[in-house]
Amino acid sequence: MNVSFLGICIVILLLCIPAYIIFTYKLNLLNKFAMSVVKMFAYMVLTGVFLYYISLWNSVLINVLWMMLMAVIAAIISVSKARLSMNKLFFPSFVGALSVILVMGLAILFAVFSFKNMFDARYMIPVAGFLAGSMIESNSKSLETYYSGLKNHNAIYYYLLGNGATHGQAVNYFVKRALEKNMIPMLGKMAYILLGVTPMILWSMILSGTGVVDAVFMQILMLSAMLAAAPVSLLITLAVARAYSFDAYGQLKNMDKIA
User: Fold this and answer.
1) Model pTM score
2) Cα separation of 98 and 131, whole Å?
């Protein structure tokens, strides 16, 4: 596929349509629309430059470093959106994101492309980005739910301990609420993804030469990974973060330093 002058003109024309509607109906959205367009172009240009050189070098080490960078970005955004302490929760969130991106990502690549091609940049980079992106919103909401629960409803934790529950059983009350907050948005988005996103990706894969059966299988595999990525990442994050929330005797630490 070659980018033509006609293609550039069509892009400009498509962007002029919402701009014309905003201007004609005097909607108070012109500044937001302009900023969105600028951010879109800046993001796509920077991403294109990164992907161009990563694909050009096609080094296993660089590809793994890119996956680690995706985990760093996912951790930073998740913790910041949850309005939690970056000093306390960046590392646990990074470990959770990196574990999922590496393990699930490599498993997907091995299942589809075999060991021979699984480390190719053309395959590793999109899979890592897809998994990282699927975790951010869900994990930010669930981390906020978990730590706000421990901070504002810690009496429930001590009540459960006082009635014979173990530390794990008492914590699981809050983990359950966080998991519900984690998985409900993803399940709710599934209809949109199936109708709005999947056909475009399938069409792109088929145009690039992938067989229909292989393209459908890849989509099923990625959607399954998307459903599994966020809750698994959350559980790993909470397990690693336990030292920041509880002392050696299972007593809650000062939650004001975290949440």
Assistant:
1) 0.81
2) 10
